[in-house]
């Protein structure tokens, strides 16, 4: 039951060997974060080139750490989409060649399904009683903010999308607001670290109702019961607050000062933020987390979910973890997160998601290509 997983959909080149979808024998990730930080976001051409440079070494390292040979593998799994076309293509082409070369089946995995399985594989490894179906899964990262109703039918998993962002992803809002306030990239960890120092009630941010297709004249229940998100409004609201409060000057000073520090930390940034800025940061994070919480628990209730799993880079957020766990406890609904290592992009989750497909003999053919817009469910 050994599967080699390969992931290259965005800015992490990753490989992992996982046994029976639950036990990671190795999990190697090469992040390109520092490379892209210079540009304040992921540059697709640079990402592809870095994947190409890293993939052979990363796969070799994952195999070595797991202590298994290619001959001992049962399958090779790779992220098919969604993601950057050129970046995906590096992993897919390599995985195809490898699978063909060593005579093993190839399995294509949806990256979002991978994020969901990051939580499930650890729950399985901890040998907790299996979470009851259906589950409500929130995948929240720099590129995605999706809600799925997930359930296992025989060996296979079925997903129904019940909510997604109509504009920015939540992680993108963290990144943009951090940039706007003169903090580092990616923004999440900076805001997470500073939010605890401010008053989350200082500034009020509102999330309007998202107009669903149903409200525009559609009819079906599925269309009515949507739990969509919108995060571009709060980014604009923060910008407006900065303008009206005359915070521009202080932001430039902070940006320059941080740029002058070799390896700036949250403590460095804290020393450069006044109380009003910390209050703004705390209020922003509190509002975003509150909105994610309302939508996720609202959807869980509407669809009768028996538990909630949260994953993706933003699932690393401290306030989000605390509040989701507290709300789950209050409602008697189990809530699970991946460990921090499996919150962000990795290949163990890809190998884990491939396991049910391996059991169901759902293999890819040589025609498999990158699906940049691939949907789940
Ligand atoms: P994809 O969306 O395709 O999964 P990604 O690279 O954008 O790719 P991840 O690597 O899973 O996603 O996560 C990165 C995102 O998570 C960034 O937007 C980052 O700001 C956010 N993030 C990381 N840590 C935290 C945190 N502690 N609090 C809030 N956001 C965080
Ligand atoms: Mg990433
Ligand atoms: Fe991801």
TrEMBL record:
Catalytic activity, as annotated: L-threonylcarbamoyladenylate + adenosine(37) in tRNA = N(6)-L-threonylcarbamoyladenosine(37) in tRNA + AMP + H(+)
Domain Gcp-like: 24-351
Pfam families in UniProt: TsaD (PF00814)
Example GO biological process: tRNA threonylcarbamoyladenosine modification
Residues noted as binding Fe cation in the record, renumbered to the chain: 111, 115, 345
Protein biosynthesis keyword on record: no
Cofactor: how and how many bound: Binds 1 Fe(2+) ion per subunit.
Entry keywords, A to Z: Acyltransferase, Cytoplasm, Iron, Metal-binding, Transferase, tRNA processing
Keyword Chloroplast in record: no
Subcellular location: Cytoplasm
Recorded family membership: Belongs to the KAE1 / TsaD family.
Protein name: tRNA N6-adenosine threonylcarbamoyltransferase
Provenance organism: Granulicella arctica
Source organism phylogeny: Bacteria, Pseudomonadati, Acidobacteriota, Terriglobia, Terriglobales
GN (gene name): tsaD
